[in-house]
Amino acid sequence: MNSFKRLIGHLVSCKGASHLISQMRDRELTAVEDSISLFIGDTVSVLLKQADASWEQYRKLECDAIRAAFAQGTMAPVVQMECWIDLTDDHRKFLVEQYDYMRNGRPAPGKRTR
Questions:
Q1: Which of 26, 38, 58, 72 has the highest CB neighbour count under 10 A?
Q2: Global pTM?
Q3: What mean pLDDT is predicted for residues 101-112?
C-alpha cells in the first residue's frame, strides 16, 4: 500500500509540474503569435486570430477526449496535461515554420522564390 501512495504522490507532483510546463508552453505560443502579428497585415492577423480560436477549441476537445479515455484510472489528468503540452508545442513549431520567414526576410520552408 505504501508504494501505491508513493505512486499517487508522484502523479500529483507530476501533474503540478505538467501544469507549470503547460503554462510555460502557452506563454511561448503567445509570444510567437504576438511576434508574428507585428509582421503581417491586419487581414492576415484577423484570420490568424480566428484560426487560433478554432485551434484552441480543437486542443481542448482532443485533450478532453484523451482524459475521458483514461477516466477510470488515476492517469487521466496527467495524460490530458501531456496532450495539452504536446499539441501546444506542435502548434508553436508550425507557426514558427510558416510565419518566421516574414521577420527574417527569407522564404518559408519548402517555398521557392521566383
A1: 26
A2: 0.66
A3: 57
